[in-house]
Amino acid sequence: MKAKSLSFRLVVSEGLVLIAFFALVTLVLEQSFRESAEQALQERLQIHVYALLSSVDLNNSGQLKMPANLPEPRFASPGSGLYGFIQQPKKKNLVWRSPSAIGLDIIDPPKLKAGKSAFLLEKQKRYALHYDVVWKNIAGIEREYVFTVSEDAQFVTDQVQRFRATLRFWLLIIGVVLVFIQFSLLRWSLKPLRIIAHDLEAIEKGKKTHLDGEYPVELQGLAGNLNVFINHERAHLERYRNTLADLAHSLKTPLAILQGCTESFSDNKDTVQEQISRMNKIVEYQLQRAAAKGEQHAIKSVDLSDVIKKIRVSLAKVYIDKGIVFDIAIPEQCQIYCEEGDVYEIVGNLMDNACKWCHKAVKVSILLDQRKARRNFSVMLQIEDDGPGIPVGKFNDILKRGVRADQNIHGHGIGVSVVAELVGLLGGKLEGGESTALKGMRWSVYLP
EC no. (predicted)? Predict the structure, then answer.
């Protein structure tokens, strides 16, 4: 995986997010577990305090009397980790300490009210529970004592450390699994981009003509725009080739004449000059034609409906004597990706033919999202007239490149070969037939 690739960046960013998330989870869970362990220890120490209270007795002279056998054996074992103290807070006097606390520093209790307790972590790294009690014997003698039960903090620390080690181990395992899952999902999610890149490489090598794969909805617009761009570039290349072919064909006759005049140049000076002038005009015309159709501009969207409306106004003025009735069934706006000049050439030629050969009616309509020949097209432009139509068997002739206007039966097909060429280079489809509504000629232009 390359460092500058999109996959690498996504994996790294997701990994950093997971690390931050697991770090916060570790801190929160460790703190929660520590508090839970301390709470459990506090409850256990509270039980030990109650056990001491139940075991101790206050004699008639006001002195505490401790039993020989304590309720918890650990109080009797030195260094057991569980320690007990009984103090008089007002006199700051140690009344009793458990055998297990021999040699340890006395834990000073905080100021408490009778019946209150305090759970603290002492400097000696021991947790201590202090409980204040006021004791009154049968003789009416009243004494205040603080019962303190302490336990080493190492027990809680060991629990937290074991929990931390277990938690971090499993979070590491889960993190590795999640990164692997995310990497797999990322590879699966970015697979359509790799497919498009592979298809573009196939187009570059000439193995494909356009992007025809099954792409996700989010990439269909991109694939469509790329197909338009590819068809657009092919159209430019094909136009240059056709223009050069026309130029070469047009120059053959003047060159043949000039070749015949080389033997006697002085006698054919006017002829030579005439042919040179003619060749200059041919070259200028073909170069202008190539420049007009071959400039490489960024493809922009064109409003097909607006183009139709403008051409309709112009043709109404040109054919005002015929009083043509136009039936324009188009949406308010219809944006397509194409050069504006190409749109005017396609629509203008077909509508001009319809106006020229109709009797009184011309119908122009637009249908969106059409399917033809197992392909999906975004727009279908249909132009119909009530004229005589094209005789059977002559339709293919007018689509051939190089057929002149005066060679077409009944005049139909003026510019139609140019329209067919443009539509084909744009990846569309041109279809002709009889109009169902007007009984004349019908042209259907399918554009991607």
Answer: 2.7.13.3
Does residue 412 surpass a pLDDT of 50? no
CATH topology of domain 301-447: Heat Shock Protein 90 (3.30.565)
| Separation CA 59–CA 64 (nearest Å) | 6
Q: What is the DSSP string of 378-411?
A: EEEEEEEESS----TT-TTGGGSTT--GGGSGGG
The per-residue pLDDT for 266 is 60
Question: Sign of torsion, CA 357 360 364 370?
Answer: negative
One DSSP character per residue, 325-376 reads EEEEE--S--EEES-HHHHHHHHHHHHHHHHHH-SSEEEEEEEEEEEETTEE
Residue-range domain boundaries for the chain: 7-159, 217-294, 301-447
In the chain, the percentage of residues whose pLDDT exceeds 90 is 11
Direct distance between the N- and C-terminal alpha carbons of the chain, in angstroms, rounded to an integer: 36
Cβ proximity of 308 and 364 under 8 Å: yes
- Identify which has the larger pLDDT, 392 or 326: 326
* Contacts of residue 278, Cβ cutoff 8 Å, sequence gap at least 6: 254
DSSP 105-138: PPPPPPP--TT-EEEEE-TTSEEEEEEEEEEE-T
Q: Class assignment of domain 7-159?
A: alpha beta
| 12-33: burial string, b at 16+ Cβ within 10 Å, e else | eebeeebeeebeeeeeeebeeb
In the structure, what pLDDT confidence band is assigned to residue 259 with cuts at 50, 70 and 90? low
The pTM assigned to this predicted structure is 0.46
